[in-house]
What we know:
The protein has 344 residues and is of the alpha/beta class. 35% of the residues lie in helices and 14% in strands. A hairpin with a 5-residue loop joins strand 9 and strand 10. It is globular.
Amino acid sequence: MSTPSSESIPAAGSRGAAPKTAAAPETAASAEPSAGGEQADVDEQATGQAEATTPQTAATAAEPPLAEGDDTAPAEGAEPAPGEGEERLGGTEGSEQLHHIIKKATKVIEKRRKILRDFAAKDTKVTSLYNIVHYLEACRAVREGKTVLWPNEITYGLTANALDDDAVQAIYDSKGRIANPIPILTHKDWIGYFGYVPWLAQKLVDELWPDNISIVVPKRPEIISDLVTAGMDSVALMCPNAGAEALARDICLNGQEIIPIACTSANISGQPSITNSDIAVEKFFGAVDIILTGPDSNVGMNTTIIDFSVDPYVMLRRGPVSLEEVFNAVPELRDKVVDATKKD
């Protein structure tokens, strides 16, 4: 798949051909001399009169015409009189309304310019998930604070080092949304590094992970920042499938450098999750550092979420793993989980 090529943009301030200069008027020297001396005297007198009147004519042409009824022209650099021009705008109220519109438009323009500057700073690299060299480079890029978009069986996902607030903010910016809690991708053996995990939550993880179910537990605030959790005291942990588990291992150097991996579905805010490489490149080229292309997602649904940070425990979102499957895996949870997704 070819990467999108940037369109050429005309340089700012470019101009067309310089305007042609007007032809110089014919001078007296270029006119043919008259045969008679009397005629020469008349010509000389006429020329003198023309020269005397030329400056006055030029000066008059340079002056702006006076408005009808005005006796004098406005002095150069003079300030307009109080209330002048308000009649056109509907008085003072109209003037204030105009200033408000201009101010609002200026804010919108500056915001768009900032977004364009931020996105333009991303020189997105697009490569294949199956290129082992580029795959390992992408894993290192996450550790170093870059944003990477990966294919996965569920949906395509955005990842960043959750210890780096700038990288986490870059995820929010690329999705075009305000702060919202971002889950942490991790291996089941490392969940205790990032949160306080109740024993039933640990048992569920041991029985099902890797699988399409996330758990929410009280976070370790010294590790997980408020930016990641949008100010909440809890954090969502996940490891949806074998591919995600391998990714977590490779980013964390098989446990030698364990970091929390901020991971969320790749989609523009308010739009469906991306399940295709072509759409991923179309939507996020220029907004993230690396895009890894791969097969289409075959699930197309976000994970099931169970919140273990409250009592009783709550199923916050339905997903590929049903509540009955949860109860079958951990029977002790049958009377301890409330399904908040049910509609009355």
